[in-house]
Amino acid sequence: MLHYARPLARLIGELEKLPGVGPKSAQRMAYHLLRAPRADTDALAAAIVEVKERIRFCSDCFNFSEDVRCDFCRDPRRKQTTICVVAEPRDIMAIEKTNEYSGLYHVLQGVISPQDGVMPDMLRIRELIERISHLGVTEIIVATNPTVEGEATALYLANLLKPSGVKVTRLAHGLPVGADLDYADQATLISALQWRREL
User: Fold this and answer.
1) 37-69: b or e for each residue (b if 16 or more CB lie within 10 Å)?
2) pLDDT tens-digit map of 36-55
3) I want to staple 86 with a disulfide (CB 3.0 to 4.6 A). Which of 25, 91, 94, 126 is the partner?
4) How far apart are CA 15 and CA 23, in angstroms?
């Protein structure tokens, strides 16, 4: 059995909690941090504290923001009649990299997943409906990942929103089933936006 000094063991344990970080990666990171100059580790610690203290959810779209409303929601040049619905804030950056979309966003804060105990009322769907009526939205682009949960969420939203007369489209062409938007390349996302289909 490996025996680390208590502070090192604690650091490794905390690093292992990060997504995609196993025991070996956590150990490598911990040793790297031990060898790094104190100024670098202090800067990292300060950045973590600052992001936890200053970043909140946008009051309109639930993206991460330093202000009450995020940059996208405050930008008067964004098309107010189209909302791209994503599961997580990181998905917005994937869409933005394409330079093909100029509307607003709405972050659901997850996807419907009964197996994980996530039901529709636990997502930001009610707020989306309020925004649609308030802004006079004519199209909703559902940009959830093409997974079973992402597809279930897309179909749920389509069935919920279609009676209101809003056009509901889904990203298509080029996004492989089971993939994350976060990992899709720019050309794939451009194609998916251009060839979206109505649900």
Assistant:
1) eeeeeeeeeeeeeeeeeeeebbebbbbebeeee
2) 999 999 999 999 999 999 99
3) 91
4) 8
Give residue 92's pLDDT band: very low, low, confident or very high (50, 70, 90).
very high
Which residues have a Cβ under 8 Å from the Cβ of 188 and sit 6 or more positions away? 174, 175
d(CA 193, CA 174): 10
Decide if domain 6-54 falls under CATH 1.10.8.420: yes
The answer to whether 105 touches 78, Cβ cutoff 8 Å, is: no
What are the domain boundaries of the chain? Answer: 6-54, 71-198
Instruction: Report CA torsion sign: 21, 26, 90, 58.
Output: positive
Q: How far apart are CA 24 and CA 62, in angstroms?
A: 35
Q: What is the pTM of this model?
A: 0.80
H/E stretch holding 134 reads helix 125-135
